[in-house]
Amino acid sequence: MANKSKKTNVAKRDVFKWTERMDDAFIDALVHQQRLGNRVDNVFTTAAYDNMLKELREKIGMPFQKDHLKNRLKSLKNNFKECFDLFSGASGFVWSPETKMFSGKPEAWKAFVKAKPEAKKWMTTQIAHYDKLVLLFAKERTKSNGDNNAKQKAGQLAISGSGRYFDGTDRQNETALHLDLEDLNEINDGTSQLATPVEANSQADSQAHSQSATSLKGKKRMAPKVDMFEREFKNIREAIKDVADAIREGNIIAERGRPRVYSEQEVFAELMKIGVERHLRYKAYTFLIANAGRVRAFFGCPAVERKEFLLQMMYSPEES
């Protein structure tokens, strides 16, 4: 009996198919709840799910359950993760909200797919609302990838014989990072001096084993550089966050300082609400909308006194 019930539940979940319209509404709801602060440590709160369920049921008219939203959120995050990890930092590609796809020149795609064959499917595969998914998940992915990327880049610098770093996410460009002998000796606290190129060439045949040992030491010497990269990435992330917070706070202050603008429909509706007689209503409406200052004064007055204040404005000697 239990197995039968389990199969029935699975069948119901399989029948519940997500459409583009459902995704549109769900992603907008996710962004809205995040802006309201209903997401803590990258996890949406119970209140967020309750709000989203109510909103989606009203908009779509389907019996959404919390598990539906959680499962879809997981799918959206996985798709975004795949795209973000592939295209983040890659030059020559841009996501288009019209086509909902990444686009680039043929030569850029050719080099990119050659370096990363898994990118081929994204030449013809859509990912809708990528710009909004960035708002939802990019910070989380950047945090999880940041330390690994720093260590990987530093490790490649240590291993590379030419001292040049080739960025795997942008196969068309090489970033030359020069590490001279003074830098390496300084990293090593001056305890060991590296041979000059001439000395190294003269000892090449007789010291193959020694060079292998030196290579291993070189990797260890790069450890301080790895720490330096990690600190720099952390400082950059914190600086960007501070700037975003400052902009957000400035927008809030600007909104508070901006006077409320009332529409003509609001003015007419308020005249009816306070009981202005019909034979005076049109005249009062024309009188108010002719001057924005009159509208602000009218709505600034307490609701119970607005009618009397309006008549005073209309028929006082100063206004006539």
TrEMBL record:
Tell me the InterPro entries matching this sequence: Myb/SANT-like_dom
Q: What name does the UniProt record give this protein? A: Uncharacterized protein
Can you tell which superkingdom this protein's organism belongs to? Answer: Eukaryota
The record's annotation in PANTHER family points to: EXPRESSED PROTEIN (PTHR46929), MYB_SANT-LIKE DOMAIN-CONTAINING PROTEIN (PTHR46929:SF4)
